[in-house]
Amino acid sequence: MERLQKVIANLGITSRRKAEDLIITGHVKVNGNIIKELGTKVDVNDIIEIDNKIINQEIKKEYYLLNKPPKVITSTNDEHNRKTVVDLINTEARIYPVGRLDYDTTGLLILTNDGELANILMHPKNKIPKTYVARIKGILTKEDIFNLKKGLVIDDRLVETNNFKVREKNYDGNFTIIEITIAEGRNHIVKKIFASLNHPVVRLKRTKIAFLTLDNLKIGEYRPLKLKEIKKLYSLK
């Protein structure tokens, strides 16, 4: 038995918070009965409907790895009619991005309709490592590197860097290229890290999530995840 809102979210219908709103406002039925109580639990034999449409029939789960281009929104839709990452994937499934990349940030992004896996990858307790390559203004000093090693407090919370490597110090162009790995999911966190060191990020690309890399994916290209990759992602829980 699982809570109704969790089941709805795991089916990839919507987020758990929005599922709770649907329940409270009377849009959800279980076995033909309108349910408005958030504590309601259901099992695999119960028939769940949203606005009279059954949602828990067998749904084919799909998993994609995308090399996100710049100037594309990490969302399923955009009120300003800008292109979203979902627009780049040729599928009829109701997929959605796992986590976020900023509008101008490129690189690795997972999209799926598997709510359970998405929750595993995004939940802070699982500490999924993500690697970025950043071009930042200015030259990193020894003090900057020391602060990165010990960790930085961003928005009153400590951010620990799992690993980082300075790839290039360009004194003529006054910029540094650095690779950094963190297990954080907060919005704009990499940009905030370097802003706190007075080195604004000029360009940012995510190159790795856990064991997944961009491989030979060109910008804007995607591929389905392999079964062994999906199983390995599940094992990160």
Shape: elongated
Q: Fraction of residues in helices? A: 10-25%
Largest sheet: 9 strands, mixed
- The CATH superfamily of the largest domain is known as Pseudouridine synthase I, catalytic domain, N-terminal subdomain
Assign the structural class, choosing from mainly alpha, mainly beta, alpha/beta, alpha+beta, or little secondary structure.
alpha+beta
Topology summary:
Elements: E1 2-3, H1 4-10, H2 16-24, E2 28-30, E3 33-34, E4 41-42, E5 48-50, E6 53-54, E7 63-68, E8 96-97, E9 106-112, H3 115-122, E10 130-137, H4 142-150, E11 152-154, E12 157-159, E13 161-170, E14 175-182, H5 189-196, E15 201-209, E16 212-213, E17 222-224, H6 227-234
Parallel strand pairs: 9-15
Antiparallel strand pairs: 1-4, 2-3, 2-5, 5-6, 7-9, 7-17, 8-9, 10-14, 10-15, 11-12, 13-14, 15-16
Helix pairs in contact: 1-2
Polypeptide structure, described:
By secondary structure, the chain is α+β, with helices and mostly antiparallel strands. It folds into 3 domains: about 1-55, RNA-binding S4 domain (Structural Genomics Hypothetical 15.5 Kd Protein In mrcA-pckA Intergenic Region, Chain A, Roll), CATH 3.10.290.10; about 65-125 and about 215-235, Alpha-Beta Plaits (2-Layer Sandwich), CATH 3.30.70.580; about 130-210, Alpha-Beta Plaits, CATH 3.30.70. Helices cover about 20% and strands about 30% of the residues. The protein contains 6 helices and 17 strands. Strands 7, 8, 9, 10, 13, 14, 15, 16 and 17 form a 9-stranded mixed beta sheet that branches. Helix 1 crosses helix 2. About 30% of the residues are buried.
